[in-house]
Write a structure and sequence with these properties.
Number of domains: 2
Largest sheet: 17 strands, antiparallel
Strand content: over 45%
Distance between the termini: 94 Å
CATH architecture of the largest domain: Sandwich
Number of helices: 2
Helix content: under 10%
CATH class of the largest domain: Mainly Beta
Order of helices and strands: HEEEEEEEEEEEEEEEEEH
Shape: elongated
Oligomer: single chain
């Protein structure tokens, strides 16, 4: 492989390391680059790949229509149908920007999926050293493994701690648990023993029953803990009508 192709992997390393704290930007191991056209300036460190760009690195793969990069500043942009996979991390967007070796952005229909959970927004900024992602724009969505969806104006996701913070017009819809909920903001702890804490005008409805309060915590065990101005509506299950014959037999 010639030197031109090697430097393209500066951008590939950034894309394929998203969500993987153990992956470094530094010199990759086994890799290859394919494109219809590939150019590199030895003096400036600038390079350009056009058409059917495929970047492979240590089992990871990124594809795009176009890539422009600088191997000296470790920055670059992949545009057009960007898809990247490595391990359990999957990224889809229209444009991927590597600002430097630790700061990256997925832009335009961005969806980042890791461990079965997907974070979507117009733009997602990712800070690799902290394993921290934040959405930018007017909407954000976090989808869980069971298909449950949390919508908000903005979501910050600390992947290292497994905690997501949602702000602005939070709604939750879970068909698997027959649950809907809403609040001004929310804290979502994503592990198996986790919970969703709804804050401000919090309300949850499940199987026709509802609970509301200033703060509401929903656990994975279908337990709701409310605090402040609590309002509960409980609808008992309808019992089958007792036949007159059964009453007479019971009293005999």
């Amino acid at each position: 492989m010639n030197y031109k192709k090697k430097v393209v992997l500066a951008v590939a390393a950034a894309v394929l390391s998203l969500g993987l704290a153990t992956t470094a930007w530094a010199a990759p191991g086994n890799f290859s680059v394919q494109a219809d056209e590939l150019e590199y300036n030895l003096q400036t460190g600038e390079g350009e790949a056009k058409g059917h760009v495929v970047l492979l690195q240590d089992g990871g793969k990124a594809t795009s229509d176009y890539a422009k990069f600088n191997s000296k500043t470790k920055s670059g942009v992949l545009t057009g149908n960007v898809v990247a996979d490595r391990g359990d991390a999957h990224i889809v967007c229209n444009e991927f920007i590597a600002h430097d070796e630790n700061n990256m952005s997925a832009v335009g229909g961005a969806v980042i999926t890791k461990e079965g959970k997907s974070l979507s927004a117009d733009r997602v900024n990712y800070y690799k050293a902290r394993e921290y992602a934040e959405t930018v724009g007017s909407w954000a969505r976090l989808t869980d493994v069971d298909g449950s969806v949390l919508n908000a104006a903005k979501i910050d996701y600390d992947m290292a701690k497994g905690v997501a913070n949602a702000y602005g017009g939070v709604t939750i819809n879970s068909d698997a648990r027959n649950l809907t909920a809403s609040a001004d903001s929310a804290v979502y702890k994503t592990d198996n023993n986790g919970y969703v804490e709804l804050i401000g005008n919090a309300k949850a409805t499940q199987n026709g029953n509802s609970v509301a309060g200033d703060k509401l915590r929903l656990t994975n065990a279908n337990v709701a803990i409310a605090d402040g101005n609590v309002d509960v509506i409980y609808i008992p299950e309808k019992q089958p009508a007792v036949k007159e014959q059964d009453v007479e037999q019971a009293s005999a």
